[in-house]
């Protein structure tokens, strides 16, 4: 097998993948820089039998090129997500077209197009009977969101940019009459721009919350009813489950004191054995089957990162997200292999 990957050459992901490929005895991996692909340069994939598209990461120039902007957006700024999404899918199609005849694309463009649109992904999962929180129809801004929440009788929701990732722009919202609060990593500057920043903060001024929602809305919003999460050792949790070649292979517990559990927000990996014991083997096995069923909706993709939520009491669970690039779990070994080594082993089989 000759593997080619579209990636950020200096990214941690790329280093882990190259190390796994070397350990598996593969020929040297061809790394095509994302800057070249996003900038429209020729894509050299000659001789590749498998092609992987890796995350574009946080490179501001790549993001600018994907959006088609003439000037860059500030680091961490949440803007132009709709244009970024269109650029990402167009770039992925160029990669697919450049792949040699017979080469396998490990994350097909049609899968990426759904996985990076939370509204479409939710619809696909729901139609397949995968448990997901109920969602509102498309909302156009704060006033529309409040009206739809009132109509549905919902007090608590998660507001998510349709094309966001890594909790960027996500708002855990409570709107109950005159009481409104939002927990989010969004920082709003005096001139109205939005940035993904630490620490996670709470807004209680409705005018500020409305301004954030209205700024995000033109790029598309996905709004789900708040699914209460189970807790363990005093912390709220969910799971990142990496499904590889159809099997729930690697699992990490994401524990948090806030409703946002993403590890890069200062949260910690939890006690996997303790959580599994608390859930019980029957509930755990059912949850893993659900993750595998969610990933099975994207049969062309070798792997997918499924975010799985248990409800208090552990009897119920639901899928919050399915992530195209959700396999970065450094140091997590199963049968002596990290996620990348397990993916390569599946390919070699």
UniProtKB/TrEMBL annotation:
Classification via InterPro entries: STM4014-like (IPR047778)
Q: What is this protein called?
A: ATP-grasp domain-containing protein
* NCBIfam families, alphabetized: fam_STM4014 (NF038074)
């Amino acid at each position: 097998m000759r593997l080619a990957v579209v990636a950020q050459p200096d990214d941690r992901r790329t280093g882990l993948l190259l190390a796994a490929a070397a350990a598996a005895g593969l020929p040297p991996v061809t790394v095509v820089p994302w800057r070249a692909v996003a900038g429209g340069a020729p894509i050299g994939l000659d001789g590749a039998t498998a092609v992987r598209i890796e995350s574009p990461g946080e490179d501001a120039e790549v993001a600018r090129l994907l959006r088609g902007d003439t000037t860059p957006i500030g680091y961490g700024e949440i803007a132009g997500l709709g244009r970024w999404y269109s650029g990402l899918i167009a770039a992925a199609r160029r990669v697919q077209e450049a792949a040699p005849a017979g080469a396998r694309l490990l994350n097909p463009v049609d899968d990426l197009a759904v996985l990076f649109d939370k509204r479409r992904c939710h619809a696909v999962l729901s139609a397949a009977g995968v448990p997901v929180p109920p969602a509102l129809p498309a909302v156009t801004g704060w006033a529309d969101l409040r009206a739809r929440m009132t109509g549905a009788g919902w007090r608590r929701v998660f507001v998510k940019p349709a094309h966001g990732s890594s909790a960027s722009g996500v708002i855990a919202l409570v709107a109950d009459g005159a009481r409104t609060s939002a927990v989010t990593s969004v920082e709003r500057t005096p001139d109205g721009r939005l940035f993904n920043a630490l620490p996670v903060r709470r807004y209680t001024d409705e005018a500020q919350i409305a301004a954030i929602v209205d700024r995000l809305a033109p790029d598309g919003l996905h709004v789900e009813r708040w699914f209460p999460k189970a807790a363990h050792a005093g912390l709220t949790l969910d799971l990142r489950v990496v499904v590889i070649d159809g099997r729930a292979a690697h699992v990490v517990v994401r524990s948090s004191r806030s409703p946002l559990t993403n590890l890069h927000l200062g949260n910690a990996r939890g006690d996997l054995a303790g959580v599994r014991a608390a859930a019980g083997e029957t509930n755990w096995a059912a949850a893993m089957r659900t993750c595998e069923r969610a990933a099975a909706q994207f049969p062309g993709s070798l792997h997918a990162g499924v975010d799985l939520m248990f409800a208090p009491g552990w009897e119920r669970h639901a899928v919050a997200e399915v992530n195209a690039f959700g396999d970065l779990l450094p140091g997590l070994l199963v049968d002596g292999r990290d996620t990348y080594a397990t993916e390569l082993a599946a390919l070699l089989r």
